[in-house]
Amino acid sequence: MNSKNGNYVQGSTSDSKPQISEDTPVQYIKGVGPARSKLLDKLGIKTLGNLLSFFPWRYEDRKNLKTIGGLMPGSQETTAGRVVSSSVMTTPRKRMKIFELVIADDTGQLKCRWFNQAYLKKYFPKDQKVILSGMVKGNPYSGFGLEMDNPDFELIGNEDTLVHTARIVPVYNATEGISVKQLRTLMFHTIATYASIITEYMPEDIMKRNNLRPLRWAVREAHFPEEYSDITALNSMVSPAHRRLVFDEFFLLELGLAFLKKREALKKGISFAYSRNGLTGNFLHALPFHLTSAQQRVIKEIVSDMERPLPMNRLVHGDVGCGKTVVALHSMLIAVENGYQACLMAPTELLAEQHFINIHRMLDTLGINVSLLTSSSRGNILEEISEGSIQIIIGTHALIQEQVRFRKLGLAIIDEQHRFGVVQRATLRSKGDNPDILIMTATPIPRTLALTLYGDLDISVIDELPAGRKPVITKVFFPSQKDRIHERINDELSKGRQIYIVYPLIEESEKLDLKSAIEGAEAMQKKYPYNSVSLVHGKMRHDERENVMARFKTGDIDILVATTVIEVGIDVPNASLMLIVHAERFGLAQLHQLRGRIGRGTYDSFCLLMAYPPFSEDGKSRLKAMESTADGFKIAEEDLAIRGPGDFFGTRQSGIPDLRIANVIRDIKVLERARNEAFTLAETEPELKKYPALKETLDKKWMGRLELIKS
After folding, report:
1. What beta strand segments (E) does 353-457 contain?
2. What are phi and psi of 470, to 5 degrees?
3. Angstrom distance (rounded) from CA 698 to CA 262
4. Phi, psi of 79 (to 5 degrees)
5. Partners of 535 in beta bridges
6. What is the pLDDT of residues 74-107, one digit of tens each?
7. Could you read off the pLDDT of 447-481 as tens digits, one per residue?
8. Extents of the domains making up the chain
9. DSSP state of 578
10. Fold assignment, 279-366+400-462
11. Residue 12 — left, alpha, or beta (φ > 0 → left; ψ -120 to 50 → alpha)?
């Protein structure tokens, strides 16, 4: 039976050879086979195309051959010589087999060892010429003086090429079962055999304007540098070959985003009528505070979008506590006033519950029917949504399930967009007749990342905090300084203030040695017997959590011990201190989100970070950043610098192509050029008819999601 994948046909009876393409499963590539293909699958390599684009993560300069006498102990060196002797030794205790090799040149001798690789002896007959690369050790007791353990080697024979030595050598990320050396050999033969199938798809004028080298050359050179030998530039990924590959990643990403934006602009949307005197006017009038100028500006941008007969696609981001919920509610009321429904989708039940509590409370006097929909919802809520009796629905991803049908969805708001992707956004939009989409995130996004991930959206920034909010004083403490922490807690309690204490887990985990929230609450009650201490965590029932949080808000609870469920949603102006236990275990964005729960009153507030050494360098950087700034946008830039672009959001943007080589910090200038070229091309060539190879490459990169350019 024939099984097809791409252009490759297994078991074909045709006399002609099967056609190899980038879609050919990797197991059919020479040197791979079924067993090794399973190992490569762990590295994300499924096809020949994946293998060709599996680039080295660093390079070693092994091209400068030294004489044995010129080798320096403690250095990574490359040398050559002829085999003087070889033998296999067995250790007396563990019975480990050690292959020992001695090579010599005119300046001296070098001893090499390989552990548990006795089979190597057959490769090294006497007088065989060999090149070796490895770390040089000095051993005055060996009689030789210089040694190498487990060096890479090449036998010098009739072959023309060297793979592992005497050149700039690529180093790949390996996995158990396949070594770096085996990967390098496989990549060398793959490039030599199959690089010819790489098709140039970049328009010639774009290549000329941006001084880009051909793609096939760039792929060869990135794997095995021949023309370019600047090891620093290669390891910084800024060589001419890397620059071409980085440009391509950004260009294909931005071109896809440009087409997504064009596709939305061609759709007919809802033209909402806006009145300052109706529901929105009553809502704003009833607020116990004035909107900031940033909130007013963003509301104006949203109103302008909603009045146009095109679907709104807007991202609103800003710092913790900047007032996004009010902006979102104002938008929802415009939809409701026009006879439409509005929904808000949050990534977790906890976050959806918190939004529901806040929104329900804020809209209570306006007579708006607000409901919560999660996977655990019961009753007739689905019928009420489809009938239209529920005007505002707050929910989780349950909102995009097939059985959920809206009567007339006009506005969909997605909170914390980084946990949802392009596909979920499209699914939510399909629940109505091109409803407006508003995306909110409390993670301030560096401009570079906003350009990269949200290039198909219009972006609004709430860059101002409400009046009266004071910056939170943040300080790192260590276990030996617990007395100082308790002094500060006592001081705040004596003023009638309230305290948050945050733990990373609910129950004790011996494996991670984390302090448990449950034990923490018991300890705090013993330490402060005259104060009310309560615990809140994610495994409690919704009504129990709501009850505890309501009591904390009204002041019945002095100390709230919690897991990260309090990261969002609770606004308690009287809470003036937060202690975060095991702060080194939290991400920077999460620490900043937690800190945003305090500093909501008119008095000084404190965030104490209890850190347990030893920490990683990244852990130190996170704690230092928290102490040095309260600016969410600076925190975001620092987070991006620490974690790198690939992991900035914690989870991958579903539906957005990967950036394997490109780095939005290092390559910002390349990103801007690629973006300009991509958006210009999408405008001048809306169907890419002149560029079929580019169209095919783009479609593959976006996995068929760009329906607009399908002919």
Report:
1. 370-373, 392-395, 409-415, 436-441
2. -100, 145
3. 15
4. -145, 170
5. 561
6. 888 888 889 999 999 988 877 888 999 999 988 8
7. 666 766 677 788 888 888 777 677 889 999 999 99
8. 64-166, 198-266+668-711, 279-366+400-462, 473-629
9. E
10. Rossmann fold (3.40.50)
11. beta
